[in-house]
Amino acid sequence: MPGEAPASLFARLWPAIVRREPKALRRLRVENLAGLAGAVLEVGAGTGTNFPLYPSTVRRVVAVEPEPSLRALAEQAAAAAPVQIEVRDGAFEDLSPLAPEKFDAVVASLVLCSVPEAEHALAQAFSALRPGGELRFVEHVAAAGALGTLQRAADATFWPRLFGNCHTHRDTVGAIRRAGFAVDRSRLVRVTPAWLPNPAGSMAVGRAVKPA
Which segments constitute the Methyltransferase type domain (predicted)? Predict the structure, then answer.
């Protein structure tokens, strides 16, 4: 529309990137959503990559995405999804417009790496959940050794500028615990071959619960 700001470099790149996601990452997305039920809040929905993967036990999904060009693609994906999905303009860092609704689950996929303050965003997710509700996450996380060194160098230079403020060397699982969640399962995965120096190759998939 006239007067709208042009899409960011990341927003222009991201649709092509997710169309070429490694099969290992898609399997992690499926694992992350398995067993969900009830009302779900997805934060940082992007183009709606998760939408076709939601199980039929999910009653409805509210998906928030702040980037207009990505949100438009997410709306298209929602129309073809197997469950009811409502796409809204919104950011992980401020979920207050959704109050007082409480959700059975919050889904975060490749988003905690890019928010300016992960613990603040996680506090928002904590508040949006009912007692006993769960956070499902699949996220870039800090690695050890040579890959960790590469991550720190990438985060300090070109990587955040190119990939929408993504920081690959974050203690995301620790941040989830510090936000008050009980992490009941989490595992580390390499989604790219060990010989490939990819800062985003180290990921964690897991589930955390808001204490009842």
Answer: 41-136
- Tens-digit pLDDT profile for residues 133-172: 999 999 999 999 999 999 999 999 999 998 989 999 999 9
Q: CB–CB of 42/61 below 8 Å?
A: yes
What's the one-letter identity of residue 170?
A: R
Structural domain span for residue 103 = 9-210
Q: Which amino acid, one-letter code, is at 24? A: A
Residue 3 lies in a domain: no
87 pLDDT higher than 60: yes
Is 139 in contact with 85 (CB distance < 8 Å)? no
Asked if residue 4 belongs to a domain, the reply is no
Q: What are phi and psi of 33, to 5 degrees?
A: -95, -10
Distance (Å, whole) CA 12 – CA 14: 6
Question: What residue type is assigned to position 78 of the chain?
Answer: A
List, for residues 106-123, the tens digit of each pLDDT value.
999 999 999 999 999 999
Question: Could you tell me the two tokens for 62?
Answer: 């509210």
Tell if the pTM clears 0.85, that is, is over it.
yes
Amino acid at 66: P
CA nearest to 63, candidates 95, 32, 37: 95
Burial class (CB in 10 A: 0-12, 13-18, 19+), 199: buried
Torsion on CA atoms 21, 193, 169, 45, rounded to nearest 10? 10
d(CA 3, CA 165): 25
CATH number, domain with residue 194: 3.40.50.150
